[in-house]
Amino acid sequence: MSLEHVLNYLKRKHLENPSFSYALEDEDNVGNVFWADPTCRLNYTHFGDTLVFDTTYLRNSQVPFAAFTGFNHHGHPLLFGCALILNQSQSSFAWLFHSWLQAMSSPPPPPSITLEPDPVIHLAASQVFPQARLRFSLPLIMEKLAHVFGSHPGFQSEFLSCVRETETVGEFEGAWDSVVRRYCLEEDHWLQSIYNVRQQWVPVFIKDTFFGELSSENSNSFFHGFVDGSTTMEMVMARYEEAGAKSIQVYKAAVVALDEAAKKVAAASSKTRGGATNGDSYQSDETQETANGMYHPLQCQGEKERTILELTAELERTGQRCEAYRANLLSILRDMEEHKFQLSLKVQNARLSLKE
């Protein structure tokens, strides 16, 4: 019944808007389900330089839900698509990745992907995205090391220091060997298994590839606060609508910020070109100065450097203004939500009074 509810929802959304994409792995048997709305596609078009396949809910909350996400230029999460994981075989995950890629239409496949440290998901992603650099999620690796952290106080901080602060492969290898020996963990199977695939998650091995990171003020999950262990399939769809509104707001704010910055750069560049290449007169002056032995290439180079510094400073100021606008907008939205809540309470109290 729950799955039927989800499928009816997806069919209705597609009828309302043909740009809303969804796919079923197998209509006769229980298979995975995928969907993405037009905003997901726009998000990926503009910010598809890295992809996160987020299965946090599937593993931690036992909710058969996964999300394709990414980041904008401020490190804020963006939604690229959603899925119900009803079959966890390699072929089903491969089908899901193919469906997502097809739904994104013209943009190229992501050059880098972050996913769960699971061999089945890894093999499926390797099959569908052969050119992509794959990285295992460090937060999910740490979750699987909870048994070690709980048994050995102090190990977690040393583990993170070893992983995040080493700058060369040799330095990492030495630090890893030291901390493992100090806590007598040479025989820990899971610890050894993640060490064997260190090239796919330790920063020193993958620092030449962009994977994107969330800003410190955001959760590691796009649907944090929307999906948890008590969420049913019906609730997944309702909360998808709520989080979708969040995605649209983030996308619009990002596009406005990019447009504003682009306009500033274009205006400054146009002004610079107009002042520096003012028709034949500039060429005539340059020719004349060269003839008189007065032309100084360093002076021209200095002007270019000053222009670059001015443009850079202007971009930084624009970014700061965008952040201020975003903070003000979030504050207004919070106030509106609080006002809405208070009104709801008043309405409820009024109804109770009438009944009495």
UniProtKB/TrEMBL annotation:
<keyword id="KW-0862">Zinc</keyword>
<dbReference type="InterPro" id="IPR031052">
    <property type="entry name" value="FHY3/FAR1"/>
</dbReference>
<protein>
    <recommendedName>
        <fullName>Protein FAR1-RELATED SEQUENCE</fullName>
    </recommendedName>
</protein>
<dbReference type="Pfam" id="PF10551">
    <property type="entry name" value="MULE"/>
</dbReference>
<keyword id="KW-0479">Metal-binding</keyword>
<dbReference type="InterPro" id="IPR018289">
    <property type="entry name" value="MULE_transposase_dom"/>
</dbReference>
<comment type="similarity">
    <text>Belongs to the FHY3/FAR1 family.</text>
</comment>
<comment type="function">
    <text>Putative transcription activator involved in regulating light control of development.</text>
</comment>
<keyword id="KW-0539">Nucleus</keyword>
<feature type="domain" description="MULE transposase">
    <location>
        <begin position="51"/>
        <end position="142"/>
    </location>
</feature>
<keyword id="KW-0863">Zinc-finger</keyword>
